[in-house]
Design brief:
This protein is an alpha+beta fold. 24% of the residues lie in helices and 25% in strands. Strands 2, 3, 5, 6, 11, 13, 14, 15, 16 and 17 form a 10-stranded mixed sheet that branches. Strands 1-4-12-7-8 form a 5-stranded mixed sheet, with no helix packed on it. A hairpin with a 4-residue loop joins strand 16 and strand 17. Helix 1 packs across helix 5. The longest helix is centred in the first third of the chain and has 22 residues. The two termini are 32 Å apart. This is Helix-turn-helix domain-containing protein. Pfam families: HTH_31 (PF13560).
Length: 393
């Protein structure tokens, strides 16, 4: 199948950046926190990053100037749009629904042949009232009288000095949006990736569908579209990558702490578990934080990460807060939130300070809490690529 022109254009820009830098896929992937095989797929046009932040970090590492970065972002936007079109499911035709018969219809006399139209002021008093009679035009006299009475009452209240509230009256302006008061923008930008797989190859989703109604596992780069189409929920573990980058090359932003807030706990979902084991590449997990959602007050605890992008697996020692970020020195935080005994909805809060300012940023999944559910005791399936179907694990 020929590649989309937008995807090929983006891949060509990525290849040019990689060629300019001269480093191997493995070495560049280690700096970008992606596997060598994933970076190769970006260069070949086989996949498109779900977030521009990955391509932007590559541009910064390879010394691209601002105009090149803008051109790269424009190309990624078009390529991402093409990727979404290619992975979006075909619309399901909606069957026509016939109108349900009226329950317990009352018997009525057959409508007589209309003769000359009777005068509107002389209705037949002997005609039986039907529950499905057509509405008459014009408002009934009692409603008109009521409306006039309301208007008179409103005018009287205004003349007597008693304020009235109407539907069109503007609500009081909140203090945060008082005209003349502006909120300074954050001194940094941040983005998230919430559909990550362990090592780029292993993950479990809970899906409320039978195996025959579940599509084959996607590549990791297309996991967001697959999960959205199937209404999937992270099973057992959710990986969330937070990329933080300062706006200034010299004025650093200090990141002080990362807090976990669980907003809802319920029993684990009684759905089938589908494992996405689809061939592992290398992986880098810097600034790795483990969260146990089953604890009453979960904490983001720094743990050692692993660099598996080379010939040997290398340990990345845990580093605690604080961190500093600038426009040329971004930071990635990888949160691994696990649960065995709940269907948990949660979000993160990142504390920061810069130039005498302090604040807290709430990190969510597109405005909604992240969601992770335990998989203990659930039927588990893996995909048999040879037979093209899901089989019991």
């Amino acid at each position: 199948m020929p590649k989309d022109a937008a995807v090929e254009e983006f891949a060509g820009l990525v290849r040019a950046l990689k060629a300019r830098d001269g480093r191997s896929y493995e070495a560049l992937g280690r700096r970008l926190s992606v596997s060598a095989s994933t970076l190769h797929r970006y260069c070949s046009g086989a996949t498109v990053p779900e977030e521009f932040a990955v391509a932007d970090r590559l541009a910064l590492l390879c010394g691209a100037h601002e105009e090149e970065r803008r051109a790269l972002e424009a190309a990624w936007t078009e390529a991402d749009r093409a990727r979404r079109r290619a992975t979006s499911p075909a619309p399901t035709p909606v069957p026509a629904v016939s109108a349900a018969p009226e329950p317990n219809p009352q018997p009525s006399a057959p409508e007589p042949d209309p003769g000359p139209a009777p005068a509107p002021s002389a209705p037949d008093p002997t005609a039986p009232e039907a529950s499905h009679a057509r509405p008459r035009r014009g408002a009934p006299a009692p409603l008109i009288a009521a409306a006039v009475a309301l208007v008179v009452l409103a005018l009287a209240a205004a003349l007597l000095g008693h304020p009235t509230r109407t539907a069109s009256a503007p609500a009081p302006t909140p203090a945060s949006t008082v005209p003349g008061r502006t909120v300074a923008p954050l001194p940094f930008t941040w983005s998230i990736g919430s559909q990550l797989w362990e090592g780029g190859c292993g993950h479990t989703y809970l899906v409320d569908r039978a195996p025959r109604a579940v599509a084959p596992p996607p590549v990791a780069a297309d996991s967001g579209g697959w999960a959205g189409t199937h209404g999937a929920v992270h099973g057992g573990e959710a990986l969330v990558r937070i990329t933080v980058q300062g706006r200034s090359p010299s004025d650093a932003v200090v990141l002080h702490a990362l807090h976990v807030r669980v907003v809802d706990r319920a029993a684990p979902l009684p759905w089938n578990a589908y494992r996405m084991d689809n061939g592992c590449g290398g992986a880098v997990t810097p600034r790795h934080f483990a969260v146990d959602l089953d604890r009453p007050r979960p904490l983001a605890r720094p743990v050692d990460g692993l660099d598996a992008s080379g010939a040997e697996v290398r340990k990345i020692p845990a580093v605690s807060f604080p961190y500093k970020v600038t426009s040329s020195d971004p930071e990635e935080l990888l949160v691994s939130a696990r649960t065995a005994g709940c269907d948990c909805r949660w979000y993160l809060e990142l504390e920061w300070s810069a130039g005498g300012r302090t604040g807290t940023v709430r990190i969510t999944d597109g405005g909604k809490p992240f969601r992770t559910s335990g998989t203990r005791g659930r039927p588990a399936y893996v995909h048999d690529s040879a037979e093209g179907r899901w089989i019991t694990d």
